[in-house]
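User: quick one
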Amino acid sequence: MKRLLPFLLLILAVAASAYGVTRYLNTRTPADQWSWLRREFHLSDTQFARIRALHEAYQPVCADHCSRIMAVQHRLDELEGTTAKNSPAYLAALKEWAELKRECNEATLQHLRRVAREMDPDQGSRYLALMVPRVTQFDHRAPRGVR
Amino acid sequence: MRDFPAYGVLSGMMDSDPNLSRALKNWRHDPPPAPRFNAEVWARIEAARTAPWSAAAIIARGLGIPAQHFRWALPLGASIVLTMAAMLGVGVGVLQTARARTDRMAAAYVQTIDPLQMTAAHRR
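Assistant: Done. Structure below.
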């Protein structure tokens, strides 16, 4: 019985060491998102090529949204410093911002659905389950408060 | 020898009582041989060999394994338990790393297609 406690401690030490070494070795290997996407959703070469093409085709749309978002946010920043928050100009800018957010969200979700359709059905469902909440649950208001 | 008082006392007693001195010189102790002495010693050795310590003996009895086999079963069991502990540690590490990597990669991927997250990252 006097050997039981040291043995239990040894078990804990072995398990903890194995865990630590595994975490260390696995986090050391860098991975880019594309090779991760390919491996994670078991994409064939054809599927991967189509998804890359969809991504490239979406980039101009995304860039356009980005520039419009930056413009509206810049205008809102200016109006916050110069006019009252109930002024027509500020309220119009806020409305535009809300519209733009909705439009961007819809475009992003549409792109995700298009990408998912290129995958095997079960992988596509898994892809949507993983990605959609990251788009819909992103707190878009947070950046406006961070100055 | 004369410097030691006790020796001096004994020496004095023997000198003073020649009968005692003679009796002590002739006295011999011949204990009778213990019956089954060897058998009992070997029985105790065998008992210690078959039951290495009480906990092992109890477990062996509970598992229905003869104690002399349990002597080998115990280190083997300990090795198996340690191997399983190592495998458990590796398994949990692999699962947690995979989950963390999935989170990180999915977040990075979404940031390349969601203009709102792109601009938010830019503003931060």
